[in-house]
Amino acid sequence: ETGVTQTPRHLVMGMTNKKSLKCEQHLGHNAMYWYKQSAKKPLELMFVYNFKEQTENNSVPSRFSPECPNSSHLFLHLHTLQPEDSALYLCASSHDRSGGLTDTQYFGPGTRLTVL
Amino acid sequence: AQKVTQAQTEISVVEKEDVTLDCVYETRDTTYYLFWYKQPPSGELVFLIRRNSFDEQNEISGRYSWNFQKSTSSFNFTITASQVVDSAVYFCALLLNSGNTPLVFGKGTRLSVIA
């Protein structure tokens, strides 16, 4: 398997559920990203991990909790979400050996999340 | 602050027509990178091209070509002899070299190619 993979591809959850999104990259990259893509809005960067350290948190509500156990895996833990959190959640990775986050980002297929 | 504008929200063309997707960017930095991504209905953002701000040479890859003009801050994308498989949302994006700044995306242009 190559590239960036995400599971599950589709998720329906209630507002009281707890679920996790998983992202795995097979590219040997050092940086990983979570983006949110809502209908009719530009892609929003949520979190950035560089060499497993979180370097960016764009004022994301605490009901979204990222985890990066190693440079190949990234999780997004979800709890007590709201219907407006329904969106496509995209994971990306970039090489960025120098840590400057200027390399090309490669994206996974996304998880389409519906919150009822 | 940097910004990317894709003024065309939706474009429809008939198969085999040529189509140009416009992208205008704003930044005060002199070193930056421009990108185009394709998002088919499956959802994945597929990387198409990356351009360094110091390299204004146009690029051609098969039916795809890109026109980078710093004088007008534009990075337009042309598909020649369009095909149904080109139907997707296309995003232009800007990344600064000045530090850990986010990749800024335009709102995308939805291209529909009709057989």
Topology as H/E string of chain A? EEEEEEEEEEE
Beginning-to-end CA distance, first to last residue of chain A: 33 Å
Shape of chain A: globular
User: Rough shape of chain B?
Assistant: globular
Number of helices of chain B: 0
Tally of separate helices of chain A: 0
Mean pLDDT of chain A: 91
Biggest interface, chains and residue tallies: A-B, 24 and 22 residues
Overall description:
The complex is a heterodimer of chains A (116) and B (115). With 116 residues, chain A is mainly β. Helices cover 0% and strands 55% of the residues of chain A. Chain A is built from no helices and eleven strands. Chain A has strands spanning 4-7, 10-13, 18-25, 31-37, 44-50, 53-57, 64-70, 73-79, 87-94, 106-107, 111-115. In chain A, the strands form two sheets. In chain A, strands 2, 4, 5, 6, 9, 10 and 11 form a seven-stranded mixed β-sheet that branches. In chain A, 34% of the residues are buried. The model of chain A has no long low-confidence stretch (mean pLDDT 91). Chain B has 115 residues and is mostly beta strands. Chain B contains no helices and twelve strands. Chain B has strands spanning 3-5, 10-14, 19-21, 24-26, 32-39, 46-52, 59-61, 64-69, 74-79, 88-96, 104-105, 109-114. In chain B, the strands form three sheets. In chain B, strands 2, 5, 6, 10, 11 and 12 form a six-stranded mixed β-sheet that branches. Chain B has a four-stranded antiparallel β-sheet with strand order 3-9-8-7, with no helix packed on it. In chain B, strands 1-4 form a two-stranded antiparallel ribbon. In chain B, a hairpin with a 2-residue loop joins strand 7 (59-61) and strand 8 (64-69). Chain B is globular. The mean pLDDT of chain B is 94.
